[in-house]
Design brief:
single chain, two-stranded parallel sheet, 31% helix
Length: 196
């Protein structure tokens, strides 16, 4: 309504399974990483037959920054060249843009990439589909590409490796004894505040 009433150009972003440093602790990438490192099993829903359009955080930020230079135009300033996949409102400078990988990844392939980056196997508990969940997600990024030329840069293997590296550094279990020479101090202990 603000876009319509005030002719205020507004772009809404729709994100798809964003992962990476500082990721949400309630989502699979962080939950799985934590559980595998702690030697606990991970719950794999729909017996692993799922796909997600995993989007690495750096690619997401690149997409947002690119869209800053592509605000929706006012209706009176448009020509008839609006593509059919553009969500541009016919009455206001408003649109919704998907920002994602545009390449769904099998959940089991994601887990394999995580195992490789962690250097240890996951213990998996296969379960049925969760109520309210969907089997596959896929970001149609044609509009993002049309507006900005955006292409994702991060493969799932590289993104997962970066996530694991950050996780190990951020949630380090302890500081080596030799970091405290001749002080008699005990090593500082860092603990994750993540639940689950």
């Amino acid at each position: 309504s603000h876009a319509h009433i005030y002719n205020l150009p507004i772009t809404l972003f729709r994100f798809f399974t964003v992962y990476g440093p500082w990721g949400r602790p309630d989502m699979a990438p962080m939950k799985f990483t934590k559980a595998i490192l702690e030697g606990r099993p991970i719950d794999v829903y729909n017996h692993g037959r799922m796909k997600r359009d995993f989007t690495y955080i750096d690619d997401l930020v690149d997409g947002i920054l690119a869209l800053m230079d592509a605000p929706p135009s006012l209706p009176q300033n448009r020509n008839d060249d609006v593509p059919d996949f553009d969500s541009l409102s016919p009455v206001a400078p408003h649109r919704v843009v998907n920002i994602g990988n545009n390449q769904p990844v099998e959940l089991m392939d994601f887990i394999a990439a995580l195992e490789q980056a962690l250097g240890q196997k996951a213990e998996m508990r296969f379960k049925g589909m969760q109520q309210g969940d969907v089997q596959d997600t896929w970001a149609d990024t044609r509009l993002l590409q049309h507006l900005t030329g955006f292409q994702r840069k991060t493969s799932i293997q590289d993104g997962v490796a970066r996530l694991v590296q950050w996780y190990r550094e951020h949630y380090a279990e302890s500081v080596a004894e030799d970091a405290f020479p001749a002080t008699g101090s005990k090593p500082v202990q860092f603990r994750s505040t993540m639940k689950g």
